[in-house]
Amino acid sequence: MTQDLLPITRIPRTGLPVHAVVVGDPARAAAVAALLDGAQEVSYHREYRVFSGSWKGLPVTVASHGVGGPGAILLFQELADAGVRTFLRFGTAGAMKPGIGDGDLVIAEAAVRDDGVTQQLLPPEYPAVAAPEAVLALQRAAREAGAPHHRGIVWTRAAFQPGLIPLFSYDGAGLAAIEMELSALLVTASLRGLVAGGVLVIDGANADELVDEDATGGYDPHRDVVAAGVERGAVVSLEALRLLAEGNEA
């Protein structure tokens, strides 16, 4: 019955596991779900593809939110309405400072709210911060998986391509990476009293001084080094959820 489904994402109002990994790409949602025991597709409407299964005995939701904060926040809100209480965003990002290589993981401590949606919901001074226990769980899972990883603040920016307006520079601010959806998740979680964090696979360099298009041929997120990082990141995300559920994040 349609009244048993939420209006935007068409996910069921009840019955989903309360721990979730959220990703941008519906195909990546399927790839993460393939790591679960007993994975089943729950729904697929627009960019919102949702699976349930279990990771080492922990019931898990895996869902895709598409590209950009305005659409992604609809998924986060409706998953919360459906009872999800722990969110880890697993995505890709561009490196913003030297020493962070392709395929490395960046564990977000907080995010710059340049997402194109939360500015319309809250004053700009309101922070977008990851739950400390989520940061620690992701760091522990990455360490135990042997995955190269870094911690830091990321820049969530709505525009992917440059336009006529000059790009505001965060040079010298020490940002680790740039992506498109995390701050929308962190703000949603803070407003609703939920646990949220994010881990991002580096798929290229975005800071001007790091880009060597002659050497790299330009942006290409489909290289083997990125694919290997995505495989590691999927396991890290799921294992971090398990650590959070068991209270073993430290």
TrEMBL record:
CDD domains: UP_EcUdp-like. It comes from the Bacteria. Residues 19-239 form the Nucleoside phosphorylase domain. InterPro entries: Nucleoside_phosphorylase_d, Nucleoside_phosphorylase_sf. Its EC number is 2.4.2.3. It comes from Streptomyces hokutonensis. It catalyses: uridine + phosphate = alpha-D-ribose 1-phosphate + uracil. This is Uridine phosphorylase.
